[in-house]
Amino acid sequence: MGNHLLRVLSLPRKVHGSLARAGKVRGQTPKVAKQDKKKKPRGRAHKRMQYNRRFVTAVVGFGKKRGPNSSEK
């Protein structure tokens, strides 16, 4: 009960900083043109690709399973 009373009486704090710096990083990164990419398979072919990636070619080893976005080899 005492903690709740303190929380109600405390003033709200600023959380995210000023809006003057919004978009700073995106604005200073150099523009790179998009590259042409090969089209991804759709439907049944995409499901087949997922299955092969997850279960067929997956390396079974000791330790924790690596996630799909891991850059370690």
From TrEMBL:
Stretch list, region Disordered: 23-48
Keyword Cytoplasm: no
Cross-referenced InterPro entries: Ribosomal_eS30
MF (Gene Ontology): structural constituent of ribosome
GO BP: translation
Entry coiled-coil feature ranges: none
Record key words, sorted: Ribonucleoprotein, Ribosomal protein
Transmembrane domains' residue ranges: none
One GO CC term on file: cytosolic small ribosomal subunit
Listed Basic residues bias regions: 36-48
Domain of life of the native organism: Eukaryota
Family under the similarity heading: Belongs to the eukaryotic ribosomal protein eS30 family.
PANTHER family linked to this entry: 40S RIBOSOMAL PROTEIN S30/UBIQUITIN-LIKE PROTEIN FUBI, SMALL RIBOSOMAL SUBUNIT PROTEIN ES30Z_ES30Y_ES30X
Protein name, entry field: 40S ribosomal protein S30
Organism: Oryza sativa subsp. indica (Rice)
Lineage: Eukaryota, Viridiplantae, Streptophyta, Embryophyta, Tracheophyta
